[in-house]
Amino acid sequence: MVVYTSGGSSVHYGFEVVTAFGTPVLTNSNHLTTPKTFGLNSSVSNLSIGTNRIELAQLGQVEPTAYAYGQQSGTVSVGFTYDDTNSQDIFQSIYGAPSGSSSGWIYPSGSTVPAEQGTSPAVINSLTVQVDQELLGVHDYTNGTRNSTATRLRRLLKGCVVTSLGISASVGGTVEGSADMVFGKEEVATSDSAADTGTNAFVDQVAITGKPLTFAHGAFKLSDGTGLRTLGEIQSVDCSFGTNTNLLYELGSHYSVDAFRQVFDITGSFQTTFKDLQHLHHLLNQASKNVNQDGVSDGTVKSTDLTSGDDTGVGAELSFTSGDKHITISLSGVTFDNHSLEGLVPVQPVFETLPFKARAARVVTRTA
């Protein structure tokens, strides 16, 4: 008896044709032409699919008498560790193709400050996720038949849209990433001999050419009203991009044919040692005084195409470096949700935790 393990598995993705939702760039109809990897330590924590079963009843009995099936929909969640070269590609899924080059990729394309009103595309880049599993040696199938050679299973999850993309780090750890996706088009799962050396062959996890990003090479800056100041003794920090994306269906097909976005949510939190009342005062003033409607900001950058008085200055900045390479996330319109203290017990350090929300973000990555 042999069972599948993650040792014979791989997960990759590829961006789809921008003008044709659910149409991946494939070789021989079932293999991503240029498979991308999410990052180091990639793992699929959830992969499920359903067909919206509808139960039909009739008078005279309490049992359902028939079934009907509606649209297909599924979810897939991938966890990974950010590296300094490959992982940044996933930001294209929420911002579209970047501008710049390996010395500075810019999301959204052409942006100079983290501003709203058009800089974040309303339609995101869909992608196809390819999941391969390989079983070596003699093994039995579910129906009892026996296979004496290796088998490769492949699933192509088409029309995937990222609903949430996260980046987080804590003391002593690596920079962790998460990508939660929904999809509505899986036409067929294939099973072939793993001995195949062509396009049907098992695809090993693409080797990462970059180095892992770590907490030790990170920095979190917050504006004090006049400029960004690096916060020391940060214990943990995270930032999440929620696209609130929904799949769109049409008459005549149970597959999704497109997707649409709603409000773009940028949220996060940080924990640092408690030093003074600055952060608490800002939170209290949000309700008790006429504070800047744009939240925490350095107040230095104005944009003439925004409503008079709006400020597109950077309120916070999260960055992780590896030599000259880096991922830098600049946030504007930062506002605190609440302020909490932990550690008010004997002989323990006191920490303050502040969840926040931002109106807009700009991501700059350097990969060379």
> What is the 3D form?
globular
The quaternary state of the protein chains shown equals single chain
Beta content = 35-45%
Rg from Cα = 24 Å
**Record field, number of beta strands:** 27
Name the helix and strand elements from N-terminus to C-terminus, one letter apiece: EEEEEEEHEEEEEEEEEEEEEEHEEEEEE
Structural class: mainly beta
The overall pLDDT average reads 85
Show unreliable segments. Answer: 298-312
Q: Main β-sheet: number of strands, strand sense, barrel status?
A: 12 strands, antiparallel
What's the helical proportion of residues? under 10%
Structure summary:
4% of the residues lie in helices and 44% in strands. It is mainly beta and 368 residues long.
Main traits of this protein?
single chain; about 375 residues; mainly beta; 7-stranded antiparallel beta sheet; globular
What would you note in describing this structure?
4% of the residues lie in helices and 44% in strands. The strands form 6 sheets. Strands 1, 4, 7, 10, 13, 14, 15, 18, 21, 24, 25 and 26 form a 12-stranded antiparallel β-sheet that branches. Strands 8-9-27-23-22-16-17 form a 7-stranded antiparallel β-sheet, with no helix packed on it. It has a two-stranded antiparallel sheet with strand order 2-3. It is built from 2 helices and 27 strands.
What's the layout of helices and strands?
Elements: E1 9-15, E2 26-27, E3 31-32, E4 40-50, E5 53-56, E6 66-69, E7 73-81, H1 92-95, E8 99-101, E9 104-107, E10 127-135, E11 139-140, E12 146-147, E13 151-170, E14 176-183, E15 190-193, E16 218-223, E17 228-230, E18 234-242, E19 245-248, E20 258-261, E21 265-273, H2 278-288, E22 314-322, E23 325-332, E24 335-336, E25 340-342, E26 351-358, E27 360-366
Antiparallel strand pairs: 1-10, 2-3, 4-7, 5-6, 7-14, 8-9, 9-27, 10-13, 11-12, 13-14, 13-15, 13-18, 16-17, 16-22, 18-21, 19-20, 21-26, 22-23, 23-27, 24-26, 25-26
